[in-house]
Amino acid sequence: MKSKQFLIKTGIFSATLLALGSTQTVSADILYSNLDTPAGYFSAATNEIGDEVILADNGNGSTINSFSFNFYNQAADGVASISIFLYANNGSASPAGPLKPSTVLWTESFAIPNAPTGMNVDVSTDLPGGALAVPSDFTWAVEFSGLGANDGGLILSTNAPTIGNNYNDYWLNLGSSGSPTWVTATNADYNINFLASIGGTANPPAPTPEPSSMALMGLGIAGLAGFMKRKANRS
Questions:
Q1: Which single residue of 109, 127, 180, 224 could bond 83 by disulfide (Cβ 3.0 to 4.6 Å)?
Q2: Cα–Cα distances in Å, from 157 out to 27, 103, 110, 145, 234?
Q3: Mean pLDDT over all residues of the chain?
């Protein structure tokens, strides 16, 4: 496993946001960004949770080479760890309707240090080959280990992303990563979004297929036949 880049910030949330912005890969376009003023912590010590995002790539898919997000951990150093998953949403329909996270596009696990006021982790260096092909709409999810009920979780933003798009709900795995039971969940008071940023290169639009020579010949013959018929009718 490659070394992990942690940017630990103490004190106010705005410092954490500045750290997150500084980890962007310069050569990458920003395809998704939700760096709005944090609204608080989202406890996630007991279940895998996921955020389904929509990249700003016009639905053509992308190759990402930068992925950062924020979380907190109140457990002592060396006690807690985190597993990260990127999923394609190509599973069966959930009870609410959307397709469930299914195919694992990438995963990684590592120990996390104590950071009770929040921290940023940049996992870009662990993407296979430094880049990863993803669909325009996919889910990133995390699962903590070694935490108490309220020891760790993600950092919330209740506003919509400034680049890309998101849904008002989030994914909750009531099973395990090996045997998942995904459901969508919501909050009655506000939309659930998490601080995250994704950079990369959007795929170009699929080229419009050129008409074949046989198709053009067929159109020409049909047009000529129509012309001859109209000419005969007029005569």
A1: 109
A2: 26, 27, 25, 23, 72
A3: 82
Q: Which residues contact 40 (CB under 8 A, 6 or more apart)?
A: 155, 156
Rounded CA Rg of the chain: 24
Q: Which of 187, 179, 91 is nearest to 139 (CA)?
A: 91
Cα separation, 232 vs 215, whole angstroms: 26
The reported pLDDT for the residue numbered 220 is: 55
Dmax over CA atoms of the chain, in Å, equals 96
pLDDT for residue 161: 93
Domain-by-domain residue ranges, the chain? 5-234
SS3 23: coil
Tell me, what DSSP letter sits at residue 214? H
Count of all residues that appear for the chain in the document: 235
Whole-prediction pTM value?
A: 0.79
